[in-house]
Design the sequence.
């Protein structure tokens, strides 16, 4: 008698992981908007807001990255979408850390590097969130 393996439905992203991942987008986007506001008004408080929002985004991105790494190791098959997701989150984390270091400078000393890096990190965070949430297609198939 031959043994058959019936694969269950693909797992969706865990709700806590989803909250961690979804929180990175508004935080990094808020950091970008804070940098844009500082570039237009030169009021230092906007740069401080951006620095704090980026630091908070780093916390959530780091937690989502660690969760994604655990899911990647536990996945039955590696590569494809889970690997792309982890690589995008790793890029968000590394560039976000660099952005945090740049925002630690004097407010005007962080321009224009901080603004450009905030834009890149915000776009990467949106892409990572998109890839993370699109693990299931319509109809429940991976």
Sequence:
């Amino acid at each position: 008698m031959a043994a058959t393996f019936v694969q269950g439905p693909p797992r969706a992203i865990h709700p806590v992981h989803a909250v961690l991942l979804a929180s990175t987008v508004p935080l990094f986007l808020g950091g970008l908007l804070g940098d844009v506001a500082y570039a237009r008004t030169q009021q230092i408080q906007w740069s401080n807001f951006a620095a704090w929002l980026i630091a908070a985004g780093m916390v959530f991105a780091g937690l989502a990255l660690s969760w994604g790494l655990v899911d990647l190791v536990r996945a039955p098959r590696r590569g494809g979408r889970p690997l792309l997701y982890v690589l995008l989150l790793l890029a968000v984390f590394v560039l976000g850390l660099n952005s945090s270091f740049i925002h630690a400078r004097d407010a005007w000393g962080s321009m224009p590097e901080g603004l450009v890096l905030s834009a890149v990190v915000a776009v990467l965070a949106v892409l990572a969130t998109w890839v993370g949430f699109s693990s299931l297609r319509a109809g429940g198939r991976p």
Q: What stands out?
A: Residues 15-133 form a domain with the Four Helix Bundle (Hemerythrin (Met), subunit A) fold (CATH 1.20.120). The chain has four helices and no strands. Helices lie at 15-41, 44-74, 81-103, 113-133.
